[in-house]
Specification:
By secondary structure, the chain is α/β, with parallel strands linked by helices. The chain contains 10 helices and 18 strands. Strands 3-2-1-4-15-16-17-18 form an 8-stranded mixed beta sheet. It has a 6-stranded parallel beta sheet with strand order 5-6-7-8-9-10. It has a two-stranded parallel ribbon with strand order 11-12. Helix 3 runs parallel beside helix 4 and helix 7 crosses helix 8. The longest helix is centred in the middle third of the chain and has 18 residues.
């Protein structure tokens, strides 16, 4: 398939410039001011008045559904195939959460494969909140090495729902993931749900300061409520990941502050899409529950631009370039350049998502799906 995106604007060399993009198969072949060409069956997308940005990367999505706190009726359903497409998410990382009992790593891997089959790029993490970690092969290291889609392990710390791991346990787990990454050419990350517990990131600081595990391999998330610890972490060279809540302006305020204080490139955003958002009282009793939405990523990007005054190219960095580099995918992902994957979003003048391409395939055009989303109304 050959596709020509005409009359758009792309951020290049420090400015938004008029551009056209020639796409062959899954890759961007050329980005130029004007491209004159014609091929039999070529798709032409006229993007007059629109800006073209890289597709978003969401590194924390509950693609098989999350939740379960408070009973089985509180389980969040799996992520629909259309949801990331409508949200502009062309690359996502699936994971488990609190429930590693009724939800399995096997089902997670299968759902990851399904997203890849429809044309997105999907990865997953073995493990869950619990320790020892649930796996497919019986080994965290083997899961990462032998399962193509698996790039790391998920665990929870500083949370009353976690297994309250000791330092030596987390060091062992992170070492397994790191060695697996070295053997398989993957990032080998230990992705850490970080709750509101008293310890915050203390164990992570201790591990980085007293062991040989690189800070690159430890990825704490949900850091909005522990901002100063997050900034200390980033200034040590670690990635600080902020969850895009349902109140976009609140997340935008936190991320804007983080972008001002953290070293360039180390602030990322993710959604916790289809994960549960339980509300706990001071006795750790659940008094309410909601769910994350994968479209919160774009909602926060819009708020960063419209409410906080960030330039669009800066607002998208925490969910494009920065995440792509954190996952070892840059420049295949996270940028618009010859040789990069043709993962693209076309935004209208109101910053609404008009068109989405994933690996060169038009998935959404003028807000309408261009692929078959099975079992959806």
């Amino acid at each position: 398939m050959i596709t020509l995106v005409k009359n758009t604007r792309v951020f290049q060399d420090g400015a938004w410039r008029d551009a056209e993009l020639l796409i062959a198969g899954e890759k961007i072949e050329t980005v130029a001011r004007k491209i004159d060409c014609s091929f039999p069956g070529m798709e032409i997308i006229d993007a007059e008045g629109m800006r073209c940005i890289p597709g978003y990367l969401d590194q924390h999505a509950h693609i098989t559904g999350g939740g379960g706190e408070g009973g089985f009726a509180n389980q969040v359903p799996p992520l629909k195939a259309s949801a990331p497409v409508r949200a502009g998410v062309t690359t996502l990382v699936g994971l488990l959460g609190t429930d590693g009992t009724t939800r399995s790593v096997e089902s997670l891997v299968a759902k990851t494969k399904a997203f890849n089959e429809i044309g997105l790029t999907a990865f997953c993490l073995t493990g869950a909140y619990e320790f020892p970690s649930p796996t497919v092969t019986g080994s965290v290291k083997k899961d990462i090495v032998m399962i193509r889609e698996c790039i790391g392990v998920k665990i929870a710390i500083s949370d009353h729902r976690s297994m309250n791991m000791e330092k030596r346990d987390l060091v062992w787990l992170a070492s397994q993931a790191r060695q697996a990454g070295i053997l398989s050419g993957k990032p080998g990350i230990t992705h850490l749900h970080t709750g509101s517990g008293k310890a915050e990131l203390d164990m992570l600081f201790d591990i980085v300061e007293t062991t040989e595990i690189p800070i690159f391999n430890l990825r704490p998330t949900h850091l909005g409520g522990k901002f100063e610890a997050a900034m200390r972490w980033a200034n040590m060279g670690g990635y600080a990941d902020f969850t895009c809540g349902n109140e976009h302006a609140e997340t935008a305020e936190i991320v804007a502050r983080a972008l001002e204080r953290a070293p360039e490139g180390l602030v990322t955003m993710s959604t916790d899409g289809n994960g549960s958002f339980p509300i706990w009282n001071e006795k750790k009793e659940m008094v309410g529950i909601g769910a994350g939405r994968i479209d919160n990523l774009h909602g926060v990007v819009k708020s960063l631009v419209l409410d906080k005054g960030l330039p669009l190219e800066e607002a998208i960095a925490p969910c494009t370039r920065n995440v792509a580099k954190a996952l070892g995918l840059y420049p295949q992902k996270g940028c618009i350049a010859p040789g990069s994957d043709a993962d693209l979003i076309l935004l209208d003048d109101a910053l609404s998502i008009d068109t989405v391409l994933a690996r060169g395939k038009t998935m959404l055009r003028h807000g309408a799906l261009r692929f078959r989303a099975n079992f959806e109304d």
